[in-house]
Amino acid sequence: RMSVVGFDFGNESCVVAVARQRGIDVVLNDESKSETPALVCFGDKQRFLGTAVAASSLMNPKNTISQIKRMIGRPFADPELQQDLKALPFSVIEGPDGFPLIRAQYLGEVKTFTPTQILGMVLSNLKSIAETNLNAAVVDCCIGIPVYFTDLQRRAVLDAARIAGLHPLRLFHETTATALAYGIYKTDLPENDQLNVAFVDVGHSSMQVCIAGFKKGQAKILSHSFDRSLGGRDFDEVLFKHFAEKFKVEYKIDVYQNARACLRLRAACEKLKKVLSANPEAPLNIECLIDEKDVKGFIKRDQFEQISIPILERVKKPLEKALSEAGLTIDSIYAVEVVGSGSRVPAIIKILMEFFGKEPRRPMTASECDARGCALECAILGPTFKVREFHVNESFPFSIAFSWKVAAPDAQSGAAENQQQTIVFPKGNQIPSLKALTFYRPGTFSVDVQYADVNEVQAPAKISTYTIGPFQCTKSERATVKVKVRLNLHGIVSVESATLLEEEEAEVPVVKKSASEGGKMDTDEAPTDVPPSTAETDVNMQDAKGTADTPGDDNGVPASGDKPAQMETDARVKVPKKKVKKTNIPVKELVHGGMLTADLEKAVEKEFEMALQDRVMEETKDTKNALDSYVYDMRNKVHDSPLASKSV
Amino acid sequence: MSSELSRGYDAVVEVGLVVDKLSEEVAALKETVHGGVEVDEKDIKALTELLTRQLVKLDGIDAEGDGKTQRKMEVRHVQGLLDTLDKLKARNSYFCNRKKSAQCETSESGVGRVHAPSL
């Protein structure tokens, strides 16, 4: 039987939801809680995962790995990662590939692990929670990811899932999952008038906004926006700095000089923030903070909001962006839903209210929406359940471009090759999507997949490189190569296949001159009502401007191909349809910073070994407990027996 | 039950019981180290961590009157223990370093806990 499970993996904690005949259930872990810590602890004899770590984490901080979501798929030099690493108690070094490696003492030796491996462990813990609950094997699932995850981060999550023995049917944007969980239960959606709902997720360390338009049986994602490092923890930091400054002046103590004092003040500020969520003012008292000095502080909510202005200002930006990219005005927003741990801060609610002019609603199950939405999506995609007809039209948050080398137009000047770039999946492109590019090349060539706007993603521009070839072109100088490019359900772009197209009759192309300028390409967008999985778009990358005019000059300027309107103006002679022979061309993929298949297989094996070791240790413990109770039992029996009394 | 005058008292006492248990372990470690025997640094760290947790727990108790007085006493107690552990750690790593530099093998002969009189 296929499993229908949704996983929400957070930076701090994770939630598991499963689909049952009667609906979606959030699964409780062995501590009867819905939230399981996203922690892995390495011990001398075994690993501890999730709830089992909480008990030992403070005992063994250097070997307790946390906050893996912030680390996954990011280069070591990433400034945000560097900032995060400062606050982490375990050791992270730069690996030979420029990506982080986590060092921990395991089985009495210092070992290194990739963030992908650690996420694999977190996921395998979630998997076993689901399996215990369902009493069945879990393989198929749907995993929630932030909308801002890069191609590489998405691939890393898939690799981690593979390590955990999971098969994600989809990596689902968290806010979209929330939108799905909202819409599918809303029975009063109108047939024609679209209800626009803004979903705001303020988490521990990041914020995401999604605006979706709902109609009966469907949701269309209109826009996504985010701030990768704005969340509840920033408010704690503001309070911390405020009091640290205050105490420096009032008590002449510097908490920054004393790690323990910092820790105590930080804990006190977190508590203070919670008190301020429900009260107009809150006190702060810490005894003997430094040098036997008792410190006293006090803050009113409006004062807290005053010092939080820089953060609150930042909250507005993603809101504005989401609204403008959705092409909507405030008046056309029907409702605002707010989720995430940071949504408890009244100042954030206030900002949302001011911005949208209406009270945001915090769903009862705010922390569970993502997991629920993921389980619903898994149910929709899988064969196990028949789900109420509801279609989500997802939109992709980044612009993806393809680039390739072309010879400089004037080959005589000896100029180097030029790079030509064209956007294949523009921002807002629906997910999934399949497009076909046509290249005219004499032999093996390569294409780079990259972000069109690096500022959007804060990641290296280049995602992957595909080498297409070798192939033989017998009939003409250049072969016609049709390259299929897929933006898949996970939001990952890849070249799916390349086909050599050869016309059976040896006829020279009739198109003498094409009107389109260099760099431009023609896309025939599929009609929007076509189901997304079959939506295919043709993009033509014809080689030279006027192929026949400058034979042998590989300047690869895309020109118009089969777009009917231009065919009429360019080609005087109509070409009769010829029989086309199709041959597959090998495609070699290189994902920059990606995990090699061989390494992934090794990681899968390693995880298996570690899981086995854990099981052996758990079983030994069980056996030992059984033995202990046996000994105890026997002792009682012996003491109670007449023989024992005789010997006394 | 708990009036305004002794708010938080019971909660503080509860943490105090945990601290007392931990303080026994601190005393045992102190005895060992002062007896000139090296201990596993992990034991010191673990105790430090556990005591810090109690400290944060104490900070989080809403206390008034007697409760507050009791809390202050308990905070002092924990901080004293933490200071002791900090000193033990320094002393222990001094052993460690000396041993490494002198290549001496005292640890082989001195395995286990030797209860030498404390200094």
TrEMBL record, chain A:
Its main location: cytoplasm. One of its GO terms (cellular component) is cytosol. It comes from the Eukaryota. It is found in: Cytoplasm; Nucleus. Residues 511-580 are annotated as: Disordered. GO terms for molecular function: ATP binding; ATP-dependent protein folding chaperone. InterPro entries: ATPase_NBD (IPR043129), HSP70_C_sf (IPR029048), HSP70_peptide-bd_sf (IPR029047), Hsp_70_fam (IPR013126). Keywords: ATP-binding, Cytoplasm, Nucleotide-binding, Nucleus, Phosphoprotein, Stress response. The keyword Cytoplasm applies. Transmembrane segments: none annotated. It holds the Pfam family HSP70. PANTHER family: HSC70CB, ISOFORM G, HSC70CB, ISOFORM G-RELATED. This is Heat shock 70 kDa protein 14. It comes from Escallonia herrerae.
